[in-house]
Specification:
The structure is a single chain. By secondary structure, the protein is of the alpha+beta class. It folds into two domains: about 90 residues; about 140 residues, Sandwich (Immunoglobulin-like), CATH 2.60.40.420. α2 packs antiparallel against α3. The longest helix has about 30 residues. It is elongated and about 90 Å long. The N terminus and C terminus are likely disordered. The structure holds copper (II) ion (CU). The site of copper (II) ion (CU) has 7 residues, from loops.
Amino acid sequence: MGPTRSARSSRARLVGVTIGAALVLAGTAGCSADTRLGRLGYPEPVTEQGSLLLSFWQNTWIAAFCVGLLTWGLIFWAIIAYRKRTHEGAPLQTRYNMPLEILYTVAPAIMIAALFAITARDQAEITKLTPDVKNTVGVIGFKWNWGFNYESDGAYETGTPAKPAELWLPVDERVRFDLTSPDVIHSFWVPQFLFKMDVVPGRQNSFELTPNKIGVFAGKCAELCGTYHSAMLFNVHVVSRADYDAHIAALKAAGQSGSLQTGRIITTGNAGGNTGRVDTSGTTGSNK
Ligand SMILES: [Cu+2]
């Protein structure tokens, strides 16, 4: 005996509701790109490069959604078209279907090749380094905070878990970040940059970006680096050129001229008492 008429119609209604909800979701995502939902969960980008990263994220999801739609469509079509209890007229269940097997192999290979090509293209663009950057910041991730050397301006600042570091950047100016670590692997991450890069002892990783929105943005370490990993917080202040210059002048007036080699403040004794002295003499890789 087959399913009753009411069971069949409620199943058809369920299919209709599912497809309707999917279309509404797709419509919302497409129409309001400046909301969190429209950005498909991504934070609001605050750099020039962010728009490229955001559209990469959105387009990847749209491609995945199209594949999903096709697959769900075929599933529901099979459920509805072959819903009879009798097997009369159904395809043979015990034999492979060569054209379908080839499709299963070729279609994913094409999709992955396309995703790979787009990823490689965007990654090359985002990690491109230019020779004539006006601002260079040396970023030192250390146990357990961050040091920032304003290489182009001869000043530095550093933080501790109790008083997180503050990084100041002038708006609409391209900045190069040179990342180093004196101890273990950290990862420099400002969520609203839509970008992060590992900070690896013994090597320098670099990237560039152009902040294009004034504001204060939270940053953190994105690599589980040890006990106080969660205390590796910092703030990024994107400000006007005039405010940036005033901040650099204030750092210098406070004695923070030059650059830190290991980023951290030297501590004495095993209680971790802070002498207040900043290490400006050592080389990267010391203070193990
Ligand atoms: Cu860390």
